[in-house]
Amino acid sequence: MKADEQGAPRVMRKSAMAGDGGMQERRRGRAPFLVGGALLACGALLLAAAAAYYGYGFFAARNLDRLAVSAGERVTETLAVAPAPPAAAERPSPAAQILYPGALLPARQWADPRGAITLGQPDLDGFIPIGGEARPLIAGAVGRADRIVIPQLGVDAAVEELNLINLASSPAYETPKFTVGHIPTTPNPGSAGNGWYFGHLENPVQGEGNVFLRLPEIAALLRDGEETHVVLTSGERDYLYLVSATDLVHADDLALYPSGDARVSLVTCYPRLRYDHRLIVTANLIAFRDASAVQIG
């Protein structure tokens, strides 16, 4: 056996090189199995995520009907249903509504319908009742909303007019970013008709806020007989609206509809993660006040 210049046997070096080559071969042989195992693990995680998503969608769809509530339901759940009054007495005349909007006022206000409404919340002090009938039409650049507050939900946000943008197929209104968006072709606060306001339930992809995250809670409040109020500020005047109903429609079926009285419709996506329906909260005008007299919040 011949030795190299350093005195090490050449056969031992060859065997060491052969051993290293064998280890590399074994590592290369294990690589496909490791890659395959990683792909299988990723596939299992994706399947689990898909199953969780569709499972959530299934259970969320089962509760969609509970979001369609009207203020009348809270009475029938706790009191015996009274006999229907004669047709002529079902609703006061427009003139009576202007002077005495009793149908829209809480019973505690009937003793003093023209005095300030007492709602037991500092944010809602100083409102003077007004009727929702025979209101003037306020639209366009005059009397636009600046701010929206829903005290019972802790909502306090700026209001902006939404602009039309050109999409691939047709024009559409932009989405509001960290604000509530008003459709500018619909009436402004205090006006006759139906003013439409949109806000995000959540927006994890584009990060545009969640100003209406708690809006779905209104259905449960109505069902429990709790009043929910919406305050819209326009310039130096606050307008108080009382929520009367919630409804849920598929996104493809949403349409902006007018109204003969003074109301607003608040809209957000539902349910979470799917966002394929639209929750509509309807509130009717019941009062106003000087915005500079009381600070909201």
Description:
This protein is of the alpha+beta class and 297 residues long. The chain folds into two domains: 7-62; 66-81 and 94-290, Sortase (Sortase, Chain: A). It contains four helices and twelve strands, in the order αβααβββββββαββββ. The chain has helices spanning 10-62, 73-76, 94-99, 217-223; strands at residues 69-70, 128-129, 147-150, 155-161, 164-166, 171-173, 180-182, 193-198, 229-234, 237-250, 262-270, 277-290. The protein has an eight-stranded mixed β-barrel with strand order 3-4-7-8-11-12-10-9. A two-stranded antiparallel ribbon has the order 5-6. The relative contact order is 0.14.
Short description:
It contains four helices and twelve strands. By secondary structure, it is α+β, with helices and mostly antiparallel strands.
Give the termini distance in whole angstroms: 96 Å
Name the poorly predicted regions: 74-100
Please provide the count of β strands.
12
Kindly report the average pLDDT value: 78
By DSSP (H or I, 4+ residues per run), the number of helices equals 4
Give the helix level as a range of percent: 10-25%
Backbone CA Rg: 32 Å
CATH topology grouping of the largest domain: Sortase, Chain: A
> Beta fraction of the residues?
15-25%
Record the strand order, biggest sheet: 3-4-7-8-11-12-10-9
CATH level 4 superfamily of the largest domain: Sortase
Number of domains: 2
Which geometry do the CA atoms define? elongated
Order of helices and strands: HEHHEEEEEEEHEEEE
Q: Given the helix and strand composition, which structural class is it?
A: alpha+beta
Tags for this entry?
single chain; 297 residues; alpha+beta; Sortase, Chain: A; eight-stranded mixed barrel; 4 helices; elongated
